[in-house]
Amino acid sequence: MPRTFVWHPGKGPKKVRSLPPAGDGMLRITQVKSAIGHSWRMRQTLQALGLRHHQASVVQKDSPALRGAIDKVRHLVEVTSVEE
In this structure, are residues 30 and 56 in contact, taking their beta carbons and an 8 Å threshold? Predict the structure, then answer.
């Protein structure tokens, strides 16, 4: 019987910008890649972040939940810290 699933720990985006250090500040999240061709979960995560279309940008308060959502779609978004 052939193996249908093989987990490769090294697979994933080759280059992903690291997030700024966690804090109480604000983060600007910009969608830099389209959600077309990606799973429905990723599309729903982008909508939950407030990104409705390609090149959209939102400012959100930094939190652990936000960091987790960004981590799921890190190859589709660009994150920068916002100075108040």
Answer: yes
CATH number assigned to the domain with residue range 26-82, chosen from the 4 options 3.30.1390.20, 3.90.850.10, 3.10.580.10, 3.30.70.360: 3.30.1390.20
Q: Describe the strand order of the beta sheet including 26-31 as a list of residue ranges.
A: 57-61, 26-31, 77-82
**Each residue of 20-70: pLDDT tens digit?**
677 778 999 999 999 999 999 999 999 999 999 999 999 999 999 999 999
Dump pLDDT digits (tens) for 49-60. 999 999 999 999
Encoding tokens for residue 80?
């920068």
* Tokens describing residue 66: 């936000």
Question: pTM above the 0.70 mark?
Answer: yes
Are 19 and 67 contacting, i.e. CB atoms less than 8 angstroms apart?
Answer: yes
What is the rounded CA–CA span in Å between residue 47 and residue 57? 12
